[in-house]
Amino acid sequence: MPPAAATNLGYTPPDGGWGWAVVFGAFISIGYASAFPKSLAVYFKEIQEYFSVSYSEIAWVPSVMLACMYGGGPVSSILVNRYGSRPVVLLGGLMVGAAMVLASYGTSIIQLYVYVGLIGGFGLAFNLQPALTIIGTYFQVRRPLANGLAMTGSPVILLILAPLNQFLFDSFGWRGSFLILGSIGLNCCVAGALMRPVGKSIQPKPKTEPPECDAAVAEKAEAVDTTEQSASLQTEKGKSQSRSQSCVHRFIDLSLFTHRGFLIYLIGNVVMYFGIFAPVVFLTPYAKHQGIDEYSAALLLSIYSLADIFVRPATGFIGNSKWIRPRIQYFFSFAILYSGVCHLLCPLASGYVGLVVYAVFSGLAFGMVSALLFEVLMDLVGAHRFSSAVGLVTIMECGPVLLGPPISGALVDISGEYNYMYYACGLFMLVPGIFLFIMHYYNYKKLDEEQRQSVAVEMKTSEETVKLQIGPDDKTAHEADR
Fold first, then answer.
1. With contact defined as beta carbons under 8 Å apart, do 338 and 368 qualify?
2. Cβ of 478: how many Cβ atoms within 10 Å?
3. In sequence order, what are the residues at sequence separation of 6 or more whose Cβ sits closer than 8 angstroms to the Cβ of residue 288?
4. I need a labelling partner for 402 at 20 to 30 A (CA). Which of 17, 119, 295, 476 fits?
5. Three-state SS annotation for 384-411
6. Taking the model in full, what pTM does it have?
7. Please, are residues 65 and 120 in contact by the beta-carbon 8 Å criterion?
8. Residue 360, Cα to own-chain centre: how many angstroms?
């Protein structure tokens, strides 16, 4: 297992204390952001009939929301770097609450696109990214545990929201439910209030080398003449390089597009995201289409979430084992393949029992993919380039996230059945799974070759260095003998 990535925070994270309150806030914030778009599927059939729209048109609501949540990640990162996590999460909670309140008064499907999709999606982005960021400021040694607890919020909150939405719809209709969901979304503001900035002065890193300050001053004074001679050249280079490096390398590292492993991951993920969300988004409408009652149909999402809850920590434990860790990319490819097979077999499930079995196995597959999604990216690019890699990946995934459910909904409109939609989503998962298996085999082989070449070059360089060192020593000894 590789060592933990080194951090250069300039202080010692508390690894506990108020950090556990921050983890609880991140649990709520991340969970709501991840689960909320999926839980809205309970209302799709009724909203579709109310506005007399097609399956593909109603599917644009969660698609726009998810696309804005992914696309708003870089914007959220910039705001977090400027203002910190707490105000950004507070703003996100207000946006989500206001979006659902406005949507409860909507009179057309276009207004739902704007309110729920656009405003709500950016609100969820402002909940997700800051919560992931602030955990890294509070935890270092226990960071995997803290991240694992926070990420569990997604299936837990989906488990709660799915039956709750059905109860709200039966009691208040979809408009009243949206109004109540807006007030529930304001709880993200409470989660944001818990995310106070870490007290960096509590445990500062000791200054172990104070004498170097005087040496640095003397060295600076000694180099004044050299600095004056190259002042004009440094001024020209400094202005251009500092700005370009601070803007490009700090926020986004475009050199990743020349990284072989990153490109393999990106291509596979872009194709995969065309089929990853539609099966769960349409699971409840599919059950209702088969004549299953509303509560039983909504319960499928809860069953799906329960499987997701249990498999995520288990996947992390297996992935960290000495047998899987060195080739964890194969494990990720297997998870995607397994998910695709589940979707392909879904139309064969008959009755409610068959859908329950599908929900269990599909939830396990989604949990495995989600647990490995960012771990394998860090394994490929390293911790120091991980933030840039995440930003680039989320931007590229906006397209398939936006278009995936509407394309699937169009298949339902054309055929009048959900079977073809599940077949298509299964293929969208199966193809990238096979692609990643083949390409990671090639990548691992190339990495082994490059490592052997690097070792050979190092050995050759060390031999030449030894010869150079032996030469002058022999010459000196020979002169001494004379």
1. yes
2. 9
3. 45, 294, 297
4. 295
5. HHHHHHHHHHHHHHHHHHHHHHHHHHHH
6. 0.67
7. yes
8. 23
